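It is worth pausing here to work through a concrete case rather than discussing structure prediction in the abstract. The textbook approach is simple: state the sequence, then state the predicted structure, then interpret. We follow exactly that order.
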Amino acid sequence: MPIAKILIICIQFLSALGVIGLVLLQHGKGAEMGAAFGSGSAGSLFGVTGSANFLSRTTAVLATVFFTCTLALTFLSAQHSKPATGVLGTMETVPGTAAPAIEKERAPSADSGVPE
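Step two, the predicted structure:
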């Protein structure tokens, strides 16, 4: 099982780097106005809108791979989880030392000298 976790973590890491890179390569919404004045990518490999479709589809696929890996890691971790012991951990009880019993309050007797 640890080999599967390492493999999923590697895939998740690579897909995260791919998503970051592809998001940085894409143009924003305002880039269309600049394309009208000659600074567009009409001569690019994918054409005017081909690169936008390719980059956005690839980003969506890598994001899906990332979220799938995240869910798989969550599922694998939930199967092998240990019960929480808290901040202090488990407390060991020493045999023979019990909590002190609370003494019962006695009613004052007649010869105790306490006025009623």
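Step three, interpretation. The two ends are 76 Å apart (CA to CA). The mean pLDDT is 74.
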